[in-house]
Fold this sequence. Notes:
Elements: H1 2-12, H2 17-30, H3 34-39, E1 41-49, E2 53-56, H4 57-70, E3 75-83, E4 88-99, E5 104-117, E6 120-127, H5 130-138, H6 140-145, H7 149-168
Parallel strand pairs: 1-6
Antiparallel strand pairs: 1-2, 3-4, 4-5, 5-6
Helix pairs in contact: 4-7
Amino acid sequence: MxxxxxxxxxxxxxxxxxxxxxxxxxxxxxxLDYATMQSCYHPEAVFSDPVFGLLDVHEVKAMWExxxxxxxxxxxxxxxxxxxxxxxTTTDWKAIYIFSQTGRKVENQIKAHMRFKDGLIIExxxxxxxxxxxxxxxxxTGWMLGWSGYFNKKLQLKxxxxxxxxxxx
Length: 169
């Protein structure tokens, strides 16, 4: 009830609800505030990216918690928010961090595609070059193998297993 009242006030002020959610999400991400990030997702949300693949709402919320609590030397910028219609948006964002598995610095440029329902993210897909990311995260191994389907499947499997272990804790 309170949520819908707030959405009505936002609309009266002339602020696009979806854009407000995007700002809330990425500002929280800049602060590594996973709880606020999680609150931006609809109860039926799904997420996908090249590393984790397709996640349901429980998995995506756990993923953000895991990434935020493990982040080292993290910074994030975002912009170029495109409101495509009442439901769909895109946003460009860049994360710079130390990849925990290798200790290597990663600068990842991402295009987020989001669909909204009731002012919350119901579909979220992050697109980026897995080969570019792999070269930074894994060095020579990523440079030599990061382009291959085999390497990418192994990477995704390892990421999913790590997420499941995190969720079981």
